[in-house]
Amino acid sequence: QMADPFLYNTGERSHYGCRGDEVQIEYLKAYVCRPSFSTDKAVIVVHDVFGWQFPDIRYIVDLMAGHGYITICPDFFKGTKPWTSADHWVDFPDWMKNHDPMKVDKEADVVLKYLKEQCGAKKIGIVGFSWGGMAVHHLMLKNPQLTAGVSLYGIVRDSEERYNLLNPTFFIFGEKDHTISLDQVFLLEDKLKEYCKVPYKIKVYPGQVHGFAQLKPEDMKPEDKPYIEEARRDMIDWIKMFV
Fold this sequence. Notes:
It is a single chain. This protein is α/β, with parallel strands linked by helices. It has a single domain, classed as Alpha/Beta hydrolase fold, catalytic domain (Rossmann fold), CATH 3.40.50. Helices cover 31% and strands 20% of the residues. It is built from six helices and eight strands.
């Protein structure tokens, strides 16, 4: 019996009124939010298992746009049903087989092309949460067009080809995440030290559980708030440093 890996209750969330627009890019739907001024810098946000329409992820898109980036969250599930809080964890492995975070290359290329050709983007970063964190780790090994990446609590898969990152990548973890042990985090650190030739950073936030960094302000517990805000600031600072 697998415990619910997301310790936040997705059912009791406050409503969020989005600032951006939904667009169709080739075969993908996407949510886009632009800053108030014109820029050639963009950020792709990769959603978690709850998909591209989940309010928390749209909040993050709007937040990044507010920092001066054309920000886009495409539907990496390509119209298939995201995981919901009503689904049963016994079915999760099967669902994951059809939603592999390592199989996002084609979608990433479609979005990169759109950002370059339709939005005039010259520098493009990527941030991803949970499922999306795994996708970011994968893409930072494969796609040199992505100038910088932030992977937030993506489960660490150990294999020799997981460490030769192409561009600067920042890994964010919660200390109390019961889907990712601190042993896995230390392993990642050791292997990156050995193989990685570009700037990277790993940071563990005290007392935080899986999914902590995308909570909207009104959904935060007071004791977690400083760590959530710090993680978001760190994420934005990393992107600002390299994108």
